[in-house]
Amino acid sequence: MSSINLGEVIELSGFDEIDKGEFIVIKKIVGNYFRKFSNKMKVEKLKINLKSIHKSEKSEIFSLNFELIGDKKVISSSENRNLFIALDEGLKKILNQLD
Q: C-alpha angle with apex 64: 99 to 71, nearest 5 degrees?
């Protein structure tokens, strides 16, 4: 599993099999949250790890683990059949911990 870097601070791993159209949306979601995190603290690294934990013909469950490193270390995780919802939920959990 290789990792994809967005700039020097954001690292995505497990996203190799995501198609280009979905990946554009993922980058937008991550970028928007990253700006919010940066407004609340100095961010050194944001790591997001994607795993598919249940895959069948009809559906797939996405499991995401998040780690934000900076002034403090914040972690979260989320699972959902919709990758975008899972991504939003996990990043929102981090944002809530920064308040």
A: 35
